[in-house]
dTTP/UTP pyrophosphatase (Mesosutterella multiformis), 209 residues
Amino acid sequence: MTSRIYLASKSPRRREILAGLGYEICLLAPEASPASAPQTDEERRPGESARSYVLRTAREKALGAIRMIEEKKLEVLPVVSADTTVVFGETILRKPQSVEEELRFLELLSGKTHVVRTAVAVGTTEENLETVISESRVTFCTMTDSMMKLYAGTDEPYDKAGGYAVQGLAGAFITHIEGSYSGIVGLPVFETVELLSHFGRGLESLTAP
Ligand SMILES: Cc1cn([C@H]2C[C@H](O)[C@@H](COP(=O)(O)OP(=O)(O)OP(=O)(O)O)O2)c(=O)[nH]c1=O
């Protein structure tokens, strides 16, 4: 029984979650950085719903890695990828590119409830690729201007979807969560282990001596 998998992600959070569960994360590109995986086009297509977008992006991240495994003739193991979006209605809040954009995001989030969706894809080939979506609702307290400025002045928001990290300082602004905490952080544990179990990487692979 093996718990060996590939992770098509440069997100340290996703790596920590999988490693914490006991998965052995194999390198996709041994000569490059451990997290290096093919880049995915993350542009939203005209008319594409927020839900379809997050699913497609997670799928494309996995497909990029699967193609690389085939080209480089690497060992075939299940690939895990994910995409997280913070959504207001149909508007997706990306990673903020500036302090000004982050302040705009915080004004939108302040005192309201929004949706966080993380899509996970797991597979070994294009034909054998499964996906799942975890959806959570996150409520922010009403933030004062000084709270917003203080947070936007830290490094925390700038590599996070929606411009905040529930697992960091932003936890101090969040009054209520409905759904999956790990899903908001970037990889929903329940759904991911469930998908991996279809590829022989379920709980028993993590607990085998
Ligand atoms: C909302 C939220 C997002 N995030 C992170 C999770 C993801 O890493 C990131 C969303 O961006 P993604 O595009 O999903 O992922 P990524 O670019 O970090 O990594 P990769 O595409 O290589 O897998 O935001 C948190 O860490 N905490 C949070 O509370």
